[in-house]
Amino acid sequence: MNIVAINSNKIQRKVMNDLKGYWALDEWKIEEFPLPDRRGKIKETKKIVDFNKISNEYIKLEIKYYSFYSLTNEIWLLSSFMEKHFYKMYFLSKFLAEKFPQVTSIIDIPYTTLLDEYKLYLTENNKPLKYPHHRGGEFISPYLGVCKSLYDFFSNYYDERPEHQKDKWNIKRLGIPYNMSRRDRFLNFTSIKFPFRELVKKYVNQTLLIHQQITFATAQNILKKMYLFFDFIVETYPKWIDLQNLQRQDIEDFLFYVRNREMGGKSYTKNRVPSNRHVIECLSNVRRIIEYMQGFEWKEAPKTPVNRLIFPEDFPRREKKNYHEHVKHVPDFIWEQVLENLHNLDSEIARLIVIMEATGFRVSDVCQLQLNCLAYKQDGWWLVGDQRKVNVKEHIVPISEEIVKIVKIQQEYINNHEKKHNNLNQFLFPVLTGKNRGMAFSQKSVTYALNQLAEKYKILDKNGEIFLFKNHAFRHRYGVNLINNG
């Protein structure tokens, strides 16, 4: 049984109360679909979505509700729901009916059990567990993706605890400012093993929500490394329930442990020998939490003072990078190539990139510029925006008439857009449709668009290789230009 204790009547009542009218029916007729602008391109042979095929009434309700939620929140088009998602959810329901016929919710089954059994079922039915990615590597099968999405959705849907007590925190529900140009909205504590998960949640709750000493992004980075320390503790001292008896030797053993475990994370670090930077971050996080625990005299804190546990010599030196191998700014000849091909970009992204180059703002800060970001003074036009990383409000930089025109074109575009009511945060570059509506443009989408442009139209560096744009490249370009101009 899932840790969120629920009964079948409560499940049925909560879901049924939210499904009204068309959405409550077991057959959804396409011609009566209540969101005509979300239909997409539907094959003429498709006339109906039939939920009666799902034999378990509770699972049917959950799949129906998840479909309703995804369609009304613009996560799916009706066409993609009918062509892709519904069949995969129906296939999952057949598996549940065969292997777990008595369940009253998908979350009745422990997640690892569900995943292991479903993988076997998919293999038995000749469904692949992974698909090759067109850019190299692999991605998870959509069948497994639907299973995970449904499980995550209802784990949260039925969980009525305060957000900070859950194992996954949604930034939207924490009531704190966050970077709305990023799409990773969760703090996931499931990588922290018991019995230390609650300790880490308590620490993040205090530092992020109560004292607000760290940002949401910093909390995410802490969790990316923190699990290693508690993996080590659980493996070394399986009976420990706190850190009271932590000794200097344990820190030395932990350093050896980190040095001899491959790095996890994204494709460019996964399975690599740990770098000095990785070791520094792992140890810094340990020192950080111990300092906090001892400073506030938590009963779980080590008895040995942190400065007798961790010494400056424990931190390795960062590897020096060859500047020419890691170009940090966009040189003039690269920018000229971008300008030559700017018309091949989406017009909004093109405007955003020109503003970013002219102002030196971080990409995340340009994405989150306010609609009324222009200011006129006696000495000319200025662009006003927050510098969130250094916590500077309403930072201003001078801009040319040409940039003013570009900003005004974007303002006019947003003010005349039929979906402008979705711009609740009054961004200059808002997302107005789809599941991210109301958010700012994604900073990753900007970098991705630039790199796609470079690849397609052969924007080349001095070695004749495709230039790779990075997040802060234009900010560094602005700084280099300021230095060069005296």
TrEMBL record:
Can you give the residue ranges of the Tyr recombinase domain?
328-486
Q: Which GO terms describe its molecular function?
A: DNA binding
Q: InterPro entries from the xrefs?
A: DNA_brk_join_enz, Integrase-like_cat_sf, Integrase_catalytic
Under PROSITE patterns, the record lists:
TYR_RECOMBINASE
Q: What keywords are assigned to this protein?
A: DNA recombination
What Gene3D superfamilies has UniProt attached to this entry?
Intergrase catalytic core
GO biological process assignments: DNA integration; DNA recombination
Q: Which Pfam families match?
A: Phage_integrase
- Recorded protein name is Tyr recombinase domain-containing protein
The species this protein was found in: Bacillus cereus ISP2954
